[in-house]
Amino acid sequence: MSEGNILFRKTLDERTMSRGSADPAAAVVPMRMGSAGVGLLVNDHREATRILSDVDTYGSAGELMASVFDEPADSHPDSVSEMVFSVNQTDGEEHRRVRRALRRVIDTRVRDVSEQLIQDVQHTIDNALTLERFDAVASIGEPIANSVMSRLLGLDANLVSALRTAVYQGCPVRELDGTLVDWVRDRRAHPADDLVSDLMAELPSLHDRQVAANTRLLALSGVEVLAALITNGILCLAQDPRTQSLVRDDETLLPGLIHEVQRYASPIGRGIYRMTKEPSVIGKYAVPAGTLLIIGVDACNRDTSALPDAHRFDPTRGQDFEHLTFGRGRHSCLGIPVTRLIAAQALRAILSGTTGFGLTMEPSELRFHDTAVMNGLAELPIWVECRGSD
What is the pLDDT of residue 25? Predict the structure, then answer.
């Protein structure tokens, strides 16, 4: 069992609202969501699970999501007719068609390059461990994400930089997609050995902007989430020497550790959007069709009404509690298998390569990127004691 005093970032709800955690009104909260109008923030695990499971009543947000993240549609008169959505923003046959194709090409590509990805992770960890002190974000998280984006998606350094700017500095999605469309057009003319080229071969009817939107989805909700998951896991372990020792001695505990990091230190803050397709009741609110819903993922994962000791990090608790970090059901994240594979390899490598590691600063002083969607550290300075060192 963990030593029980692991600190992680407060949920966005706790950081921005004065309500106490015991106030039931905090479970479902009306809030303004850009030009989409007033929607509902759902911080209740049971309600969120119900919403994500019922795709007939609660569909993809599509246009409403765009109005949250970008400028109002009336500032770009032609923007509504030009909107193109990734697979997680669509429903029905279009969603099934594209998701099936993505599932096939992801599974094939991961199978083809998994050994190389694992070698990249080991090489990255080995390089970092040659230093006594280093920033785990810059030396571990980002290099591993770069490797996955390159080997899986074929993205170059400039595109990776543009994607991170979109995540952490609020670059409008429209601008990012414009950059990606140019790259996709070149890929279509000159296919390469990567997942995006595979997707265009598997589903040639997808036009360039659709491919670009799905490339953005895979990169942002997959690979950058992976980088944050790894560094969040290192943060938890750095504060918990007991768990470090337990997992070093018994590697069968590693899946439970990964599961608990996903739950307690979710790399996603508020990253799942749904829309009511018909009138519905959510919490104490009767809401009309067309209402935007946002799932407070990190708050739901630490909802004490669903898991009484949810605010305690315990990697030995097992995997019975269903966290919502990767969504649920038909719209769950497509990259779950590769994310778990790479995160497990990274934590395994840093544990097996050290006799101990910890933070070089107080956890309360750590700085996270200022974004509602991601719980990503700006830096994570740690010290390490490597095996064989004095």
Answer: 42
Which pLDDT band holds residue 173 (cuts at 50, 70, 90)?
low
pLDDT at 68: 55
Give 137: exposed, middle or buried? Use CB within 10 Å, 0-12, 13-18, 19+: buried
Which contiguous run of DSSP H or E holds residue 281?
A: strand 280-282
Rounded to an integer, the average pLDDT of 157-162 is 85
CA 175 – CA 184 distance, rounded (Å): 14
Q: Is 154 helix (H, G, I), strand (E, B) or coil?
A: coil
Least Cα distance to 267 among 239, 226, 312, 215 occurs for 226
Q: With CA atoms as reference, report the closest residue to 60 among 283, 245, 217.
A: 217
HSE of 115, CA atoms in CB hemisphere, 13 A: 1
Which 3 state secondary structure label does DSSP give 124?
Answer: helix
Among 156, 152, 154, CA closest to 111:
152
**Pairwise CA distance, residues 313 & 265, whole Å:** 9
Q: Which two tokens mark 186?
A: 């070149």
Within a 13 Å sphere around the CA of 323, how many CA atoms are in the beta-carbon half? 26
Residue of 214, 179, 178 lying closest to 196 (CA atoms): 214
- In this predicted structure, the answer to whether residue 20 has a pLDDT above a threshold of 50 is no
Q: Lowest-pLDDT range, 71-75, 249-253, 272-276? A: 71-75
Residues 6+ apart with CB under 8 A from 16: none
Q: What's the pLDDT score for residue 57?
A: 93
- 50 in Cβ contact with 56 (< 8 Å): no
Sign of CA dihedral 173, 195, 257, 379: negative
Query: Tens of pLDDT along 230-262?
Result: 999 999 999 999 999 999 999 999 999 999 999
Residues 72-85 as b or e (16 or more Cβ within 10 Å = b): ebeeeeebeeebbb
